[in-house]
User: What shape does this take?
Amino acid sequence: MAGIDPIVSPDTLLRWYRNLVARKYDGSRTRKAGRPRMARKIEQLVVGMARENPSWGYTRIRGALRNLGHEVGRNTIKRMPAAHGIEPISTRRKVMSWETFLKLH
Assistant: This one.
């Protein structure tokens, strides 16, 4: 046995094994780019709250969602109404129709 020369070196065997393991556990096929979207149900809640309560800010909407058991970030809440064509809270407070004013009071 001492006279037989090995076909490959131990370093080559270890390199082959590392490559094999790397290919086996490569998750690139199942990996998707970016953060997953927020659930449609929560997005509908945020948009509904923003439409029905024009004086509520993002922090107030976040508190209402937290009371319902949903943890959503403030900037996420800020993006949702804008995607549905609702103006930012600073603009909504300045421009309020009489109908909305009377409904609120």
